Amino acid sequence: MTLEPFGARLRRAMDTRGPLCVGIDPHASLLAAWGLDDDPAGLERFCRTVVEALADRVAVLKPQSAFFERFGSRGIAVLERTVADARAAGALVLMDAKRGDIGSTMAAYAATYLDPASPLFSDAVTVSPYLGYGSLRPAVDLARACGTGIFALALTSNPEGAEVQRATGADGSTVAATVLGHLREENAGEQPLGSFGAVVGATLGATVAEAGIDLDTGGPLLAPGIGAQGATPADLPAVFGSALRNVLPSVSRDVLRHGPDAAALRAAADRIADEVRAVVTS
Q1: Range of 234's domain?
Q2: Would you say the pTM of this structure is higher than 0.90?
Q3: Looking at residue 169, which CATH number applies to its domain?
Q4: Where is the Orotidine 5'-phosphate decarboxylase domain (predicted)?
């Protein structure tokens, strides 16, 4: 099965539902705050509530795989159901797994998340290019063949990332700029939006522009860091500049803390989506 390219589907979802990705991050503390046990049953109740509240209205839902994997096979079973239910309700699903490896192992990771025959089939997956961008080729090729997408870590919101991402190569380019350049090549000629995205933190302020890094790759830019990490929608123009329209802000705790009340979850997501839309379209 080959889908319409992910970039085209994402552009439509962002334009009609609002440019927002909500993370499904079932921390133990969040389960407790919802009055749920920290076990597979609590995990399932949490995820079902989020999907039922948000999957028919937000553009993207982003399950963080680690919070499911910690429960072993029962947690993965909940992840399978969460992905399937979210996609059935109309949301695009971005699996936040940050996979990165080489050769047949990378191909296996790609098949896990990007092959329509997989139980964990998602619309896109986060990947790490820090074994060399070429190591991502199995994921890139499978995504192109299936109409799915990837988001490669480029300029992340965690302070530790700078020691790798801001390092410079022999040509004077930073590692991040090199990754972004490869993504630009992958997206060349794709309309209305490429399927090969980058992860760029919303907390970076003007440092990206000051470093002369071009974020416009022709693909989507996943922007974590709004809310609990300190950034706001108003910070987005300073970070993303001319690439602002392609930004997909990712919010987790600032929405999820309003649960388990479904109406409160919806209201929080709608509010943030409206704030982002106002900034992006102003």
Answers
A1: 6-281
A2: yes
A3: 3.20.20.70
A4: 19-268
